[in-house]
Amino acid sequence: MSGRSILKRIDWLSVFIYLALVLIGWINIYSSTFIDEQSSIFDIGTRYGKQLFFIGVSLVSIIIILALEVNFYERFSSIFYLISMMSLLGLFVFGKTIAGATSWYDLGFFNLQPSELAKVATALALAKYLSDIQTDIKRRKDQLYALLIILIPAILIIPQPDPGSALVFFALIFVIFREGLPLFYLAIILGLILIFVITLMFGTIWLIIGLALLTILLFGLKKKSFKIPIIPLSLISVAIILFSLSVNFVFNNVFEQRHRDRFSLWLRLEKDPKKLEQIRKTIGYNTYQSEKAIESGGFFGKGFLEGTRTKGDFVPEQDTDYIFSTVGEEWGFIGTGTVILLFTILFLRLIYLAERQKNAFSRMYGYGVISVLLIHYFINIGMVIGILPTIGIPLPFFSYGGSGLLFFTILLFIFLRLDTNRLKESF
């Protein structure tokens, strides 16, 4: 396919939203790191200057991605996956430790985070495996292999330690559900999460009481013709109780104190006002200051470079994980609403593009892209406004970070390149 034909077929709405998010993100990085003595936006010694450099690198990568043949990505997906797994293993020997996590390679001018590459490679490898004619997702063996593709990078990333990045890979499970994995697996996952939260908030005793009341209600309201499977119901109840009992053990003996404090803050587990205030000033400090920064912005915001909390460095990591708080303070509800609207339109557009693919690999990879971007967006915004615990993952295309911007760009534009090969009618 010629370059002119690719430019005609590429989804320009997605490209426009990508460019808008990158531009708005850079403006807020500039604002959150600007010092009066600095003048040139091209100064590589500044964070906004370095981010501008990586925006240029990302734009060059887009040209390369669009120039390669569509079949290239499917054909070499397994090789990409193996290379990315080797790069994760190499961190245990050659990795650079930053903020307590050995997650980077020191390449001199910048630090490369291979977990970002692994997200792209895993999405490609999973799409390749699921689209293989010999794969039947209804078979347990194929389900296990698909799960292993997701688990391997997560297992390699957790010991760095970087649980936030590891969590992102589990979002790819939704690709498997889209392709036919029975929904009862999803029900089990959601059920375990619910039991975990209920146990932490109310304890195992109240969970057992709740189960007993539900059982009584079930027997009381059932029709005479309907037979309740007693043995399976009993086994499920026992499993729920055993899992609930294990939650307290894991929470108190496996989780570190900082993790327990974050859950205590998130679920309001700590009842002592003094201890809760202490947690907010330590573990919850970032979120507390972020909430205050967004709240102070009001409807219209304080204006570009006018954020007092931003200028006062009240919010740590404000150009990376907490960049959204800069938007809230300086641009107000109008600014945050615009960013959320752009992301929403992008996600809806990508879902549409994925559904119109005739090629199974392209469709599955498209949903992999959506899953990775969506969980980053949901968790990042959630922790900045205080409805989710602090995990520490960036906002796609927005937060400061060369590796993140580059590989998010690659992740997205590989799919847009695959989409140029589709034959379905666009709207």
From TrEMBL:
The chain crosses the membrane at residues 12-31, 52-73, 79-99, 144-177, 183-216, 228-251, 331-352, 364-391, 397-416. Pfam families: FTSW_RODA_SPOVE. GO terms for biological process: cell division; regulation of cell shape. It is a multi-pass membrane protein. The keyword Cytoplasm does not apply. InterPro entries: FtsW/RodA. GO terms for cellular component: cell division site; plasma membrane. Keywords: Cell shape, Membrane, Transmembrane, Transmembrane helix. It is found in: Membrane. One of its GO terms (molecular function) is lipid-linked peptidoglycan transporter activity. This is Rod shape-determining protein RodA.
